[in-house]
Amino acid sequence: MKRVKWPLLFYAILAAASIIGIGIAIAEKSLIGVISCIVAVIFIMGMGFKTKKRLRENGELKKEA
Questions:
Q1: d(C-alpha 33, C-alpha 12), whole Å
Q2: pTM, entire model
């Protein structure tokens, strides 16, 4: 069994929550909510990719087939 990379899981959950937030903000007709959730998704995804790159460079994350 493979080991869980907790930081990557944390970023994935936050990104999913932000995407859900976009849907809720649309339902509530809140433009500010939609924009803030979109910005949050972009920021969180960027941090996740940055963390993944750092883990791969340190040899903690192997490229899988």
A1: 20
A2: 0.83
What are the pLDDT tens digits along the chain (65 aa)? Answer: 578 889 999 999 999 999 999 999 999 999 999 999 999 999 999 999 999 999 898 888 776 64
Q: Are 19 and 55 in contact (CB under 8 A)?
A: no
Residues 6+ apart with CB under 8 A from 51: 7, 8, 11
DSSP letters, 23-52, are HHHHHTT-HHHHHHHHHHHHHHHHHHHHHH
Query: What residues contact 52, with CB distance under 8 A and at least 6 apart?
Result: 8, 61
